[in-house]
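## retry 2 of 3
previous attempt timed out at serialization; input unchanged, resubmitting
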Amino acid sequence: MSNDISIRVSNKDAGKQYILVFQKPDTNLNEMYDTLFPVAWKVLPLNSGGEQSVTYPVQLEIMVKESSASYDARARGTVQDTPVGQMWRFTNDGDFNVLEKVSGSTVDGLMGCRNEAPQLIDIGLAKSGTPLVVKRRIAQGDQANFKLTPKLYFAYVTDIQAGELIKSDVSASKLFELDLTNLKSVDIELSIADQNTGKKQWTARNRKSAS
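## retry succeeded, writing output
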């Protein structure tokens, strides 16, 4: 039985909207928007009456890319499935990049990776090959540690594409927070709350628990 979460996102009557789906890190918040970034995991173009289904997979991945001046989610990286609480190390073996597990358990579900290669790298946590959070420009000998909040966020946005870094807080007025704890499926709807002002609202319906 799959523990993946099914989410149906719909736009009732709010006109043409781009719906951003992302997650936030739960650690190192003093580094947020400096070296630590949430990433646009999904961007759904939805017109009034439109809907898309999103599967939030239970499987998590650790992802390492060679660091460049600007982050490129499309650049090929080294990716491995990771359990929660696993630490990794990244090395070069000739022409080959190697991601391997480090033995021992971590505290409170923390995950991370140590850079043992002679170059700057970007380290992230991903699902379905698309990063959720990224720590930029990790030097040789340094380590990035992560923990994700058990929440998914939805916002209507402009000028962002899937895989781009989110470089500042998204306005709370545009945001919907979905608690993923014990969730199996849910419907998330964006609609116009006030026709006079155009104010929009989010609504969650048909929430089903995983147990």
